[in-house]
Amino acid sequence: MNKIDRRTVSLPVEQADYIDRLVASGEYGSASEVVRAGIRALQKHDEVIEHWLQTEVAETYDRMRNDPARGIPLQTVAEKFRKKAIERRKGGD
């Protein structure tokens, strides 16, 4: 079994209430179980992001560095974002 290291943490009332509701619902046996589940989820999320950065982002960066002509000019990207923003304001999503 893993060694347990006790910690004291401060939480906003909303988060503390959320933990209490999860424990009261029976989904978790204690506040510590809720926190451990949250940390496991955060670790998994970080692993997914790190994998994405190391594979897709790094590969794309290398391709762009080796052949800058493949890129899209900043002005073109900015114009697309402006058009999308205008469409959303009009409700056109």
Automatic annotation (TrEMBL):
Q: Which InterPro entries match?
A: ParD, ParD_sf, Ribbon_hlx_hlx
Q: Family, per the entry?
A: Belongs to the ParD antitoxin family.
Protein name in the entry: Type II toxin-antitoxin system ParD family antitoxin
Q: Which GO terms describe its biological process?
A: regulation of DNA-templated transcription
Under the heading Pfam families, the entry gives:
ParD_antitoxin (PF03693)
* Annotated keywords: Toxin-antitoxin system
Taxonomically, which superkingdom?
Bacteria
Quote the NCBIfam families the UniProt record gives.
Answer: antidote_CC2985
Q: What is the lineage of its organism?
A: Bacteria, Pseudomonadati, Pseudomonadota, Alphaproteobacteria, Hyphomicrobiales
